[in-house]
Automatic annotation (TrEMBL):
Top-level taxon in the UniProt lineage: Eukaryota
The EC number(s) this enzyme carries: 2.8.2.-
Gene3D superfamilies for this protein: P-loop containing nucleotide triphosphate hydrolases
Reaction(s) catalysed by this chain's protein: alpha-D-glucosaminyl-[heparan sulfate](n) + 3'-phosphoadenylyl sulfate = 6-sulfo-alpha-D-glucosaminyl-[heparan sulfate](n) + adenosine 3',5'-bisphosphate + H(+)
Protein name per Swiss-Prot or TrEMBL: Heparan-sulfate 6-O-sulfotransferase
GO cellular component term of the entry, any: membrane
This protein's UniProt keywords: Glycoprotein, Membrane, Signal, Signal-anchor, Transferase, Transmembrane, Transmembrane helix
Length: 171
């Protein structure tokens, strides 16, 4: 009988540990919204910046963009002189997004990526000039981790060096 009670106790302890592990997987943060009953109320969901003790929020969201700015669509003319310059911010998924730009984007003429090569050719339709300036299309033309200042000085010179003087667009 005592052996059976040990097995039941062991099973309950194992079940408890399994539940704790699952809970940590589902709710990894210190405040699990699934366990809080107030999270289900509409008042708590209305303002994410409201403190639990109803004190004024220390963070007041300010958006510098109008709704029109956020919904604006940018036009990109792949046949014209438009150029996309990809400036990745370190440790924010820039490598993955840069690879997506050259491999998965749906354009009239997408980039050509050959197996085993890190660089892809991103030419305009019917021309031998690139429409994308990134490490996956032009390599490290402006340095390893070029920032905004380096790119604004470097990109025009790199792009214009590949064109004849009469074909260079005014910038």
């Amino acid at each position: 009988m005592e052996d059976r009670s040990h097995k039941v106790l062991l099973a309950l302890v194992m079940l408890f540990l399994f539940a704790v592990i699952v809970l940590q997987y589902v709710c990894p943060g210190t405040e699990c919204q699934l366990l809080r009953l107030r999270a289900l109320s509409p008042a708590a969901a209305a303002d994410p910046y409201r403190a639990e003790d109803e004190t004024p929020a220390r963070f007041v969201p300010r958006f510098n963009f109008s709704a029109d700015d956020l919904l604006r669509r940018g036009g990109f003319n792949i046949k014209g002189g438009d150029l996309i310059v990809f400036l990745p911010i370190q440790k924010t998924g820039g490598t993955t997004f840069g690879r997506h730009l050259v491999r998965n984007i749906q354009l009239e003429q997408p980039c050509e990526c050959r197996a085993g090569q890190k660089k892809c050719t991103c030419h305009r339709p019917g021309k031998r000039e690139t429409w994308l300036f990134s490490r996956f299309s032009t390599g490290w033309s402006c340095g390893l981790h070029a920032d905004w200042t380096e790119l604004t000085n470097c990109v025009p010179s790199v792009v214009d060096s590949k064109k004849e003087v009469r074909l260079r667009p005014s910038r």
